[in-house]
Design a protein that fits this description.
284 residues; alpha/beta; five-stranded mixed beta sheet; three-stranded antiparallel beta sheet; globular
Length: 284
């Protein structure tokens, strides 16, 4: 499958305009048309719905879009590995969620770089499901996620275990005394969709079905500025809020009649291909 055709397909799928695609790729518009037609013939499926004023992906086009991205990623990674053989540094491709990176991985990578262990590190930050898929596609050597990878051909080890705290800015005397489970829906709660299986389920079940939170976000590190500005409260990992607890800019609200689960994160890698160094820290 011609990768130029794939790049043309992805560009057209993004801008949804043949002329703009041609301009972005510095090719003739007829070349764009021919490449898409060739790709559709090869796949035996129509990828775009065309009209005079509108261009959109077909169902097959939407499905193929993700595969096309992964094919190009694989090509880029393979070329990088081939070319890296001419250099002394060993390539190390890591994928991680943002929270694991900010709270745990960054200090370890800093140490690794200071020690100059001879690696050429390529770091990807995304959601758990994405980095685990990249690992299975051969695009990563190791993935750090909140979801364990339980598939043949891969090893999965616990990387860290963290406490989950209900954090808020100081100043509310009632909150500082603690809160009961039934009182949570009455708070200005900022919801982070951790996508952490039992942890995410635990938080949602603290509130009524279909409860509308005043604010939702999928990245817990981005919640801190709101809490520090005195807006609401939220369950967050201890390792994330520890500096704020130590300097007094945030407090941990005591839970009076219920307990929060602990958060586990994992490192996964292909069986028999563990990197020469170990980043496993063990359960805290």
């Amino acid at each position: 499958m011609d990768t130029q055709n794939l790049r043309t397909f992805l560009t057209l799928a993004s801008v949804k305009n043949f002329t703009q695609t041609a301009n972005l790729m510095f090719i003739a518009q007829s070349t764009v048309t021919n490449r898409i037609a060739e790709l559709e013939r090869e796949l035996g499926k129509q990828l775009f719905i065309r009209s005079k004023k509108h261009l959109s992906l077909t169902r097959e086009g939407l499905l193929f879009q993700d595969y096309a991205k992964r094919i190009l990623d694989l090509e880029e990674m393979s070329l990088r590995e081939i070319n890296s053989q001419a250099f002394s540094r060993a390539p190390l491709r890591l994928g991680t969620t943002n929270t694991i990176y900010e709270c745990r991985l960054a200090p370890l990578l800093t140490r690794l770089l200071k020690e100059d262990a001879g690696y050429s590190i390529n770091l990807t930050i995304s959601h758990s499901v994405n980095v685990l898929q990249m690992l299975q596609d051969g695009l990563l050597d190791m993935a750090f996620s909140y979801q364990p990878l339980q598939k043949p051909g891969f090893c999965c080890e616990r990387f860290e275990t963290d406490e989950l705290l209900l954090a808020s800015a100081p100043g509310n005397a009632l909150l500082e005394q603690g809160i009961r489970k039934e009182e949570l829906p009455g708070l200005n709660y900022l919801f982070c969709n951790f996508a952490l299986q039992e942890v995410g389920q635990f938080i949602r079940e603290l509130f009524p079905p279909f409860y509308q939170f005043p604010f939702e976000i999928d990245n817990s590190t981005k919640l801190l500025p709101y809490l520090l500005d005195g807006i609401g409260c939220s369950f967050l990992p201890y390792s994330l809020v520890r500096p704020c607890l130590e300097d007094g800019s945030l407090i941990s609200i005591p839970l009076l009649d219920f307990e929060a689960p602990r958060i586990s994160c994992y490192q996964s890698y292909p069986a028999g291909k563990k990197p020469a160094f170990s980043l496993v820290q063990g359960e805290k």
